[in-house]
Structure to design on (352 residues):
């Protein structure tokens, strides 16, 4: 028997603060899975967020407030994620033990694994419970983030009257969105191509095996176009997105794109090769690309050719529904790859 007016499970609002833009996604739990209630993004001024560090909390806070207002989101519980130099994620193997013991063990031993002073970080861990087949060891994911980087975000959210209940790592949020939407038994690489970084996360046997942040990204294209054609940043961005005509610059633009994409591909390939060298029996079957940089025309085919694996664009809403009266299905499909992290955050229930 079902109660007809059972309360719907409240989910948090996912907020992905990138160096180029902030993305917001709100979902609702429904019987068949999730429904997309609301989503949108807003550009951030250059330098406001850099390498995961919040440099301009006032401006970023104001932009987030306006975006939420525009999207008519009134809920206050949010989740955000971080990445960059201040975040360390390590996978370690330990003898299987109960949670309390594990906690004590990790707190006393974490110094070995984390290259920061433990007093200066927030530390969290997850037992992947890989101690199947009677093996006595289990894999633990340890995540540490510097307080000096997290605290400014917490203060900014407080100042705009929001309550962060989840602080996540970009790569975990992406993985979360992937796990919900895709078949779980494949070995794949999630590749998020942002403005300032490319995050490669290799998922094998339902767990992240290898993750790497490469400090290159789509902003390099804007910077180079700006330099080559003596443009201001907005003009260069418009040229890059094809919003302004290339005219006689077309050939040169293509060359710039090609050179950068070759560099990115080489870096991505290094991680994939490293994975294959150590996991011969679990070859990758595909790459799933997300982030604004994955919009670059021809990139999917280019990576497919050069890396020799099928490449797919990430759609974090594959298994979700949305009301076409409030969210244009075309927009949802088109914005999907950029929304992957925000959607992964938005799946989290509000625990408190
Ligand atoms: N069609 C396109 N062609 C080329 N680049 C694009 C296109 N659409 C978006 N981009 C680029 O994608 C980048 C923004 O992507 P995204 O929103 O994933 O970055 P971000 O999350 O803000 O940055 P990061 O995660 O690196 O801090 C910008 O540099 C933007 O110019
Ligand atoms: Mg990003």
């Amino acid at each position: 028997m079902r109660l007809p007016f059972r309360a719907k499970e409240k989910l948090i609002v996912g907020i992905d603060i990138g160096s180029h833009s902030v993305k917001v996604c709100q979902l609702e739990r429904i019987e068949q899975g999730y429904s997309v209630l609301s989503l949108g993004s807003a550009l951030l001024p250059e330098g406001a967020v850099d390498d995961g560090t919040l440099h301009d909390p006032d401006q970023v806070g104001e932009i987030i407030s306006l975006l939420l207002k525009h999207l008519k989101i009134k809920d206050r519980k949010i989740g955000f994620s971080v990445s960059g130099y201040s975040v360390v994620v390590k996978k370690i193997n330990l003898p299987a033990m109960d949670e309390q013991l594990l906690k004590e063990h990790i707190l006393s031993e974490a110094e070995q694994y984390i290259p920061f002073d433990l007093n200066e970080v927030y530390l969290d861990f997850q037992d992947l419970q890989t101690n199947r087949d009677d093996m006595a060891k289990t894999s633990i994911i340890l995540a540490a983030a510097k307080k000096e980087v997290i605290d400014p975000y917490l203060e900014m959210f407080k100042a705009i009257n929001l309550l962060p209940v989840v602080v996540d790592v970009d790569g975990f949020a992406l993985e979360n969105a992937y796990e919900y939407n895709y078949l779980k038994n494949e070995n794949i690489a999630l590749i998020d191509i942002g403005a300032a970084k490319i995050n490669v996360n290799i998922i094998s046997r339902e767990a992240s095996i290898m993750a790497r942040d490469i400090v290159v990204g789509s902003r390099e294209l804007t910077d180079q176009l700006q330099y080559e054609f003596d443009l201001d940043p907005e003009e260069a961005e418009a040229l890059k997105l094809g919003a302004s005509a290339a005219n006689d610059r077309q050939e040169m633009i293509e060359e710039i794109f090609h050179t950068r994409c070759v560099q990115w591909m080489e870096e991505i390939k290094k991680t994939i090769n490293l994975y294959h060298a150590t996991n011969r029996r679990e070859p990758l079957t595909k790459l799933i690309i997300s982030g604004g940089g994955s919009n670059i025309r021809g990139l999917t085919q280019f990576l497919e050719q050069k890396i020799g694996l099928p490449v797919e664009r990430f759609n974090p809403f594959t298994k979700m529904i949305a009301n076409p009266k409030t969210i244009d299905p075309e927009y949802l499909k088109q914005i999907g790859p950029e929304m992957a992290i925000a959607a992964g955050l938005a799946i989290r229930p509000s625990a408190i």
Summary: Confidence is low (pLDDT under 50) at residues 1-6. Residues 18, 194, 291 surround magnesium ion (ligand 2) (CB under 6 Å). The chain has ten helices and 16 strands.
